[in-house]
Amino acid sequence: MESISLSQFKQLVASGKCPTIKVKRQNPEESLHVACLQWVLLEQRSHPILRWLVHVPNGGKRPKGEAGKLKAMGTKPGYPDLTLPRPSHLWRGLAIELKSPDGRVSPEQVDWLNAFLEDDWLVAVCRSLDDFIAVVRRFLINTPLPPDTDVLWKARHSAVSAKKTAKGSSCLP
Question: Is residue 34 part of a domain?
Fold first, then answer.
């Protein structure tokens, strides 16, 4: 089975034939997240490795008791929105942080993204469905993204140390 194009995906969503994920209220980052996972559900048929793409729900507002329980169970701030802990030929895994167009990467997220980068993962910050699809397709076909690609963490942040960033470096997107 072949991959679908972005325009085909958007037509499927518009026609209501796309697998839906219901969410009561969404902010721009949540909307992007849902669109990305809808695309992944469709692509899974062609690329079974995508079944291992996972979201760990670390963020969001929770009652104090639940937040404390999750912290006691090992929840860590800054963990990327989506990870695929399976190797491809070029990378040991895939880590993607999803951000709204003006969203900022936190110091804790910088630490996680740099840690995955050091372990030879493909790491990216995606601000649109187009960015997300480009990164995932590159991971799937084992083709490096051009070094000037905006979404690549390595291209913009490989020299950023978490300590510098925590002190207020202006290199965060």
Answer: no
Bridge partner residues of 123 (DSSP): 95
Residue 94 lies in a domain: yes
- The whole domain housing 76 covers 51-166
The pTM of this model reads 0.72
Q: What's 156's domain CATH number?
A: 3.40.1350.10
The tally of domains found in the chain comes to: 1
- Give the integer Cα–Cα distance in Å for 50 and 64: 34
Question: Do 12 and 42 contact (CB within 8 A), yes or no?
Answer: yes
Q: Is the dihedral of CA 143, 146, 151, 157 positive or negative?
A: positive
pLDDT tens string 102-132? 899 999 999 999 999 999 999 999 999 999 9
Q: C-alpha angle 141/147/149, rounded to 5°?
A: 80
Distance CA 133, CA 31 (A): 15
